Amino acid sequence: MKLIKEIADWTYSLVIALALAIVINAFVFQPTRVVGSSMEPNLHNNDYVFVSKLSHTFVGTPDYNDIVIIDSRVFRERSVKDDLADPVSTYLSVAKLAEVDNHIWIKRVIGKPGDTIEIKDGQLYRNGTLIEESYIREPMHAATPKKVTIPSGQVYVLGDNRNNSSDSRYIGPVPISHVLGKVVMVL
């Protein structure tokens, strides 16, 4: 009987600890792993980063140049269920027991609501002003000029490795509800 009670106590403690860890990771602070080269030269494949989730929890708009994690599935609504499921997959990926979900991307905030972002001749302009970007890997290859005004409640994000990044150029502006947190530490 004593052994069964001890096993039950341990099981209860582990379940509570796991539930608390999931809640903290969903709403406060989360470790994650970088997958791919889209943020080089600043973040590299398999780098570990810590993300503050407070801006997502309290629906804050990130600042220019913040490095954020986003849910790239911008054409679907996010729910609390998504917020609770993401930490579980993140734990598995950090432990290298599973791959990082490919819909979670790390990008840099370039435009905020109301901004006009224009890419022409491989250069980035925000509200008509050329943006000097010392953090990018290399100049963008000239592509078809693109101009977009960021709607209310959305942001425009780009990878630092502009020639090898899927970002707002492809999925469009990202709803603020899909900005899951801000990178605050890189290991």
UniProtKB/TrEMBL annotation:
Gene3D superfamilies per the UniProt record, alphabetical: Umud Fragment, subunit A
CDD domains: S26_SPase_I (cd06530)
GO molecular function: signal peptidase activity
E.C. designation(s): 3.4.21.89
Peptidase S26 domain residues: 8-186
Family stated for the protein in its record: Belongs to the peptidase S26 family.
The protein's name: Signal peptidase I
Organism, as annotated: Sporomusa acidovorans (strain ATCC 49682 / DSM 3132 / Mol)
